[in-house]
Amino acid sequence: MSGEAQLEALLQIINTSARQAIAEYKKGGNDAPTINSTEFHPIDFATDTVALKKAVRLLEGACQQLCASLAPPQHTVINFAQSYDWACTGVVLRTKVADALQKYPKGLHVSELSQMVGLEKGKLSRVLRVLASKGCFTEVETDVFANNRLSLITLTSSNPGCLARIHAQDVSQGAEVLYETMTEPDYASSYEPDKAPLIYALKKKGLKGSFFDWMKEDAERRENYHRAMIGLGDIMGSLSVLHHYPWNEVKTVCDVGASIGTFSIPLAKMYPHLKITDQDLPEVLVQAKDVWTKDAPQALQSSQVEFIALNFFEESPVKGKDAYYLRNIIHDWPDAEAAIILRNVRKAMEPHSRLLIHDYVLTPASRKPTADYMGADVAPEPMLPNFGAGNSRMYQQDLNMWFIHNAKERTLDDSISLGSAAGLRLEKVYDLAESAVLEFKLA
Length: 443
Ligand SMILES: C[S@@+](CC[C@H](N)C(=O)[O-])C[C@H]1O[C@@H](n2cnc3c(N)ncnc32)[C@H](O)[C@@H]1O
Description:
The strands form 3 sheets. This protein has a 7-stranded mixed beta sheet. The protein contains 20 helices and 12 strands. The protein has 3 domains: 3-81; 85-154, Winged helix-like DNA-binding domain superfamily/Winged helix DNA-binding domain (Arc Repressor Mutant, subunit A), CATH 1.10.10; 227-442, Vaccinia Virus protein VP39 (Rossmann fold), CATH 3.40.50. The protein has helices at residues 3-26, 50-70, 73-81, 85-95, 97-101, 110-117, 121-132, 159-176, 178-183, 185-188, 197-203, 211-216, 219-236, 241-244, 264-270, 282-295, 297-301, 335-348, 392-405, 412-421; strands at 108-109, 138-141, 144-146, 252-256, 275-280, 305-309, 323-327, 354-359, 361-362, 410-411, 424-431, 436-442. β11 and β12 (436-442) form a beta hairpin. The chain is an alpha/beta fold and 443 residues long. 49% of the residues lie in helices and 12% in strands. Bound molecules: S-adenosylmethionine. S-adenosylmethionine (SAM) binds at residues 212, 229, 233, 257-259, 262-263, 280-281, 284, 310-313, 327-329, 332.
């Protein structure tokens, strides 16, 4: 394809995928959102977002590829290095700017807003303008800001906002020392969880141990983290698995590392025939029982769910369940630890059991033969086969896992090798347009 033909093909993908996304928003008689929308759209928190996400993955990937092709290269690369959106987002999250604006739908001047949130008005205005220029908050007139559909994500009531706060406040400390941890001898070649970049940074502040030890220290931090896990599910659209996995074929499910029921509460509600076992560390199950009591009391009354404490490095989950579901678990751990978890789950499995690993699946940015993708989606030419920026969150999440845990997101080949070393065979890939479910059986 000539250069111009490639650019034309990208324009075509942008046009078609944007129209597909608009059609998804308009289903059910609603209008599609714009940058000025001030409320969430009903689809924003729908559980099945696969069709919309497939369209947006093409749209974001093709738009960035077109811009990176046509913009001066120095312009694009400086954009990588000087994106301080995370720092500005951190400021509005920590000072609860969106909460303060809730009573002022027509907007509030920074001179009043700054008093409410305790920040100097000139600086606050500059932070808000950075975000408003990318569609988060509206600058209704000079220095008057109002909430919009994107800024609502930064409300204290928002679970994705809890995750954004972890990134802006905590993970960024790891990012800051990335170079040091890649060059200092003790850290450079290590994949131990306590040699992660964030832990390097926190050790200087007195932390001993790993990220989860740090989490144990503080109840508020723990609560924010578990709400962030619900937010991560919303961001990844992982509840699509409720619609795209054959749950009617199984009767018993063990949610390994279940957190506060982020996945298994909606699962219990949608599939009342399932018997669910939630397993996690004992202190997490205390918080989990409170959440189930509030959100799904009928599941407790009918004994649809049971809670069994588990340390997945030291013991196996309950035996003989039809499905062992591990969402955002394996990516928390380097290979050695991930292998122990999988071996312990394998010991609990019987021939009818399946192990479901629900994480991101990374693909190289170079094209492979279609069969090698085992059913995972591949972007059309001339796009990068891994959808480029359309999948940017999974590559960023790979870095997050590195910064926090010295762990990683894995490619299909990585997961196949990890499973096979634990006596498991990959049977099927369910591509949910951002995350994927890998179904393993006993080898
Ligand atoms: C990233 S969260 C994922 C939670 C949940 N599966 C989800 O998708 O929302 C990781 C979970 O692993 C749990 N965990 C960490 N170490 C553990 C261990 N040694 N044994 C059992 N669970 C553990 C954490 O408490 C946390 O709930």
